[in-house]
Structure formats: structure tokens, C-alpha cells
Design brief:
The chain has 364 residues and is α/β, with parallel strands linked by helices. It has 12 helices and 13 strands. The protein binds pyridoxal-5'-phosphate (PLP).
Length: 364
């Protein structure tokens, strides 16, 4: 007899992160995981280092000071914040707490992969709603809500498409949802967005019983290695997550670094400004080579290749030979695309040049 996991587990295709190594290349430019090219705030590194003499101590299980620092920076109520080991952990805790076999977890067609993976881990059914123009479609999502829908995940802006729902579209989506559906707005890239019609999610959380906002320290704060995320939610949902999470789910070093990071507004502003400048520069540069750069509200850009999947694959391989690591989009159902994180100036100049060369080669 072999020991079997619960139904659905073996249907999961494990999440494959962006590549981080290029064998044989004499430089490596890592643009596959949406990491901050400026790294974390120096104050966050110092706070992390200061924890090294306390490694025998358990962390503060309530992340009290960190929640207070976040609440202060964002003008929120600390009691309604729950921290996690990355927002990935909060996604999986929400799914575990609110869905099970027979339930449905709804998301948008090209949404973040972790939503479907988390649904399968609890035996729930992932349901993808089609998009229009690589953007979440409010009517398409609402049309797929059933009595069995428990959660709706919306990345806003979305990774990997870079598109977002406006304030009015988000309100319409929320209004159309029955009370039994928890709307989870994954705002991992919120800090980068400059568009005036981009909605802040916190007011919607505060005005409803069924909205959660997720945020992360992995992107703008450059602390992906430490695994730190947080959610803002109604008191009843916070109570539920505090029951299902591990008692010490966030390390003390991550808490300390997070406190320093959230207080370093200058570093956040520098990261935002760097991204805006080089996202615009890079998108224009690749367009000159005939590659379509989709509009992006995040710290990455989706490139669509006129020659389709074969060309995208050839370009991915050619850039990798030069030590430039981009992200394949096959797992997201976008095989004719590659996703490029906005890196340093040097990274972006080298990548634009390599893409131009690769495309010229592929055409011959
Ligand atoms: C990167 C990302 C996350 C988060 O990650 P953690 O590192 O687990 O905090 C969450 N959602 C989206 C859409 C992302 O792109």
C-alpha cells in the first residue's frame, strides 16, 4: 500500500520561481523575479544585523511593533493587520481558512499562479475568468461567481500583465459580489502605481466585511529573502487568520528589518522614481526593436513577440547565454511573451541591446 496525499495535491504543478543562475556566462543580470534592483533600505540591513545576538529567542508572535509601524506609515488600524511569511503565506492561509473540497476559488485568467496552487492544496476548485486585453474583466469575473465561490483573488496591479483595475471598476466588482465571497486584493505592487485612477484598497476594506488587502515587503522594500508580507482585513477575518497561522510565522529578523524599511520613506521614493524612469526608458527602447511592451503599473514589463512562442523561446535562450535572466510566461498561458523586471540602469541598457540583437538574429 502506498500512502496517498489528499485529492488534488498531485494535480499541483509546483511553482517554479524565476531563474537565478546562468551557467557559463561571466555576468548574471537577474530580471526574472521582480526584485528591487536598489536592494533594501540600509536601515533595514542594519536592523537585520542587530538581531544576530538574539537568535536563541522566539520572535514576537504578534508582530506588535511591526504592525504598529505599518499602521503608522499607512494610516491604518494595527489591530486589523496580520503579518505573514511573505504574502504567499497569507494567500495560502486565507484559502485554507475559507475554502475546502467542493468550494471554488476564483481569479483572473492571467492572474498570479499562487491562487490556483493554494486552492488545489485544500482540495478546492480553481476557477479562472477570461480577461479582456490582458486585463481582469469585471463582468467576466462576476459571471463565474457561484454559490460555491468562497474567495476571489485579484492582483491589482496584476503580475505578470502589469494591468490594473480602476477605482470605479474595483467598486463595481465589489458591489456585484454576494456576501459569501471574500474579495482578496493582492496589492503587491501598489507602491509603484502612479495612475490617478488606481484605487487605494484600504478604504474598501474598512467599509466592508468581505475585503482583504495583501501587501508585501518583497518588492518595493527589497526584502524578498526575509519572507515578509501583511494583510489588512475586517476584524473577523484577522481573528480567523490569527487562529490558523503558526504562532511564530514571521522571524524576528524579518520583523526588525520590516520596521526599519517601512519607516524609510526616502528609500521607497528612490525605488519608485528609479522604476518609473527605467520602465519608461526600457519600454521605448524595446519598441524600437519591434517588440511590443505592454503598459505596466508595476516594476516589470510584459513583452509580446511578433514571432510568437518560438521567437519568445529563442530570445529567452539567447539572452540567457549572455547571462540575462528573464521570465518565461508559459506557465501563465502567455507563451508568446516574456516578463522583464526593471533592474539597474546598466541592467536595462544591456538587456535592451541583447533583445535587439536576439530579435535581429531570429529574423535572419
Ligand atoms: C511577488 C508577488 C507576491 C508576493 O510575494 P511574497 O514574496 O510571498 O510576499 C504576491 N502577489 C503577487 C501578485 C506577486 O507578484
Amino acid at each position: 500500500m502506498t500512502i496517498k496525499p489528499r485529492p488534488g495535491i498531485l494535480d499541483i504543478a509546483p511553482y517554479v520561481g524565476g531563474e537565478s543562475k546562468a551557467a557559463g556566462a561571466n555576468r548574471v543580470i537577474r530580471l526574472a523575479s521582480n526584485e528591487n534592483p536598489l536592494g533594501p533600505s540600509p536601515a533595514a540591513i542594519a536592523a537585520y544585523e542587530a538581531e544576530k545576538n538574539q537568535l536563541h529567542r522566539y520572535p514576537d508572535g504578534g508582530a506588535t511593533e511591526l504592525r504598529r509601524a505599518i499602521a503608522e506609515a499607512e494610516s491604518l488600524d494595527a489591530a486589523n493587520i496580520v503579518c505573514g511569511a511573505g504574502s504567499d503565506e497569507l494567500i495560502s492561509l486565507l484559502v485554507r481558512a475559507y475554502a475546502g473540497p467542493g468550494d471554488e476559488v476564483l481569479y483572473s485568467e492571467h492572474g498570479f499562479l499562487m491562487y490556483a496552487i493554494s486552492a488545489k492544496t485544500v482540495g478546492a476548485t480553481p476557477v479562472a475568468a477570461p480577461e479582456a486585453n490582458l486585463t481582469a474583466d469585471v463582468d467576466g469575473l462576476l459571471a463565474r461567481v457561484t454559490e460555491r465561490t468562497r474567495l476571489l483573488f485579484l492582483a491589482n496591479p496584476n503580475n505578470p500583465t502589469g494591468s490594473y483595475l480602476s477605482e470605479s471598476a474595483l467598486r463595481r466588482l465589489h458591489k456585484g459580489l454576494p456576501d459569501h465571497v471574500l474579495l482578496v486584493i493582492d496589492a503587491a505592487y501598489a507602491e509603484y502605481v502612479a495612475a490617478p485612477d488606481y484605487p487605494q484598497s484600504a478604504p474598501l476594506v474598512e467599509a466592508s466585511d468581505n475585503v482583504v488587502m495583501l501587501r508585501t515587503f518583497s518588492k518595493i522594500h527589497g526584502l524578498a529573502a526575509l519572507r515578509l508580507g501583511w494583510g489588512y482585513m475586517p476584524p473577523a477575518v484577522a481573528d480567523v487568520l490569527n487562529r490558523v497561522r503558526g504562532p511564530f510565522n514571521v522571524s524576528q529578523a524579518a520583523q526588525a528589518a520590516g520596521i526599519a524599511a517601512v519607516r524609510d520613506r526616502d528609500h521607497v521614493a528612490r525605488s519608485v522614481a528609479h522604476n518609473a524612469k527605467w520602465l519608461a526608458w526600457f519600454s521605448a527602447a524595446v519598441a524600437k526593436s519591434g517588440i511590443e511592451a505592454l503598459p505596466s503599473a508595476g516594476n516589470f514589463v510584459l513583452l509580446r513577440f511578433p514571432g510568437g512562442k518560438a521567437q519568445a523561446e529563442a530570445v529567452l535562450a539567447a539572452t540567457k547565454r549572455q547571462g540575462i535572466l528573464l521570465r518565461t510566461m508559459v506557465g501563465y498561458g502567455l507563451p508568446d511573451c516574456l516578463r522583464v523586471t526593471i533592474g539597474t540602469e546598466e541592467d536595462m541598457r544591456a538587456t535592451a541591446e541583447a533583445l535587439g540583437d536576439a530579435l535581429a538574429e531570429a529574423v535572419q
